[in-house]
Design brief:
The structure holds 2 protein chains of 2 kinds. Chain A has helices spanning 9-23, 30-48, 54-68, 78-99, 110-120, 125-132, 135-146, 150-161, 166-173, 177-200. By secondary structure, chain A is mainly α.
């Protein structure tokens, strides 16, 4: 889960004190927030992006957070607000790649097809879990996600892979709940089509 | 014979497990002290923030609350104007007859 709805009140009020200092001109105070939440942001970013892009994107997240601080209303905690910025930065990463056509539309290899056959065979639970943990599973997932639009990809990751509700996803992305629901339906259909295509190859 | 739906569900579950497993990777070496220094250096280059003016914040908060009232008032005004049966040509002609100098000024100013 990205958000922690049980943030202790002390932690929230500490964050607010620091945010006020930063807004009033003490930029160095931001380092306290940076140190406190950097691992949280790194975990979020790593869920959505390749390993080699995590540090640069996490850097971008904190810069955006710093620049947007005057607009922070404090309705939700700072951690939740920062989580939203992290998710939207990841989404922007894929949008940029998609626009510049940098995403490779590599086809599935033989090993991915073998993995697919192994998973759909009647396996014991243990063998099934072993298959799930193989490198091929992660590669196949990355390639399948790469065939979706950035909007479909981010919604699929948040709703189906992370199990967030439509409202939670909408809050993180700054979209309407209706938009998220339509996207999650479409993205699931598209993923099914991609995987069905693999089966038929 | 298993259906395609069952196959898709197994694949989906396996991919979800693969996605969850990714989270177990140790990320301790990422975002180290050097990285933190780099971010703070960038923030110092940006400089101090400009807080949002308090008045703007106040106005922004209240302006949208009056928007529905403003819309209703505009609708009432339109209905009233329609019912008053105002004719601009008639009013201009009346002005010309009653106050020719005033009419000339209005015409020059393009009102």
């Amino acid at each position: 889960m990205h958000c922690d709805s049980t943030d202790p009140a002390d932690s929230k009020s500490d964050d607010l004190k620091i945010i006020r200092q930063v807004i009033n001109g003490n930029g160095n105070a931001f380092e306290v927030l940076l140190k406190k939440y950097k691992q949280h942001v790194v975990k979020i970013v790593y869920r959505h992006l390749p390993y080699d892009q995590v540090e640069e994107t996490a850097h971008e997240v904190f810069i955006r957070a710093y620049q947007s601080l005057p607009g922070f209303k404090g309705k939700s905690g700072f951690k939740q607000w920062l989580s939203g910025i992290a998710v939207r930065t990841c989404y922007d990463f894929w949008r940029k790649k998609y626009r510049s056509r940098e995403i490779s539309m590599s086809s599935f290899s033989e090993k991915h097809k073998h993995w697919f056959e192994a998973v759909t065979a009647d396996l014991s639970d243990q063998t099934f879990h072993e298959q799930s943990r193989k490198k091929e599973a992660r590669e196949l997932l990355d390639r399948a996600l790469g065939r979706l639009t950035p909007e479909d990809r981010i919604v699929l990751e948040l709703v189906y892979l992370e199990g967030l509700s439509g409202k939670e996803t909408a809050d993180l992305l700054g979209w309407s709940v209706a938009n998220v629901k339509i996207r999650s339906f479409r993205s699931r259909k598209k993923l099914k089509k991609v995987l069905t295509g693999l089966r038929q190859e | 014979m298993k259906s395609q739906e069952e196959d898709f569900k197994r694949v989906k579950d396996a991919l979800k497990t693969a996605y969850d497993d990714k989270q177990k990777t140790d990320l301790g070496e990422l975002a180290d002290d050097m990285w933190q220094m780099k971010v703070m250096r960038h923030i110092r280059r940006i400089g101090p923030l400009k807080p949002e003016p308090v008045l703007m914040e106040f106005v922004e908060g209240w302006i949208w609350k009056f928007a529905p009232v403003a819309c209703i008032l505009i609708a009432i005004l339109i209905v009233c104007l329609y019912n008053l049966d105002l004719s601009t040509e008639y009013e201009m002609a009346k002005l010309y007859i009653d106050d020719p100098i005033g009419y000339s000024i209005v015409k020059v100013l393009g009102i």
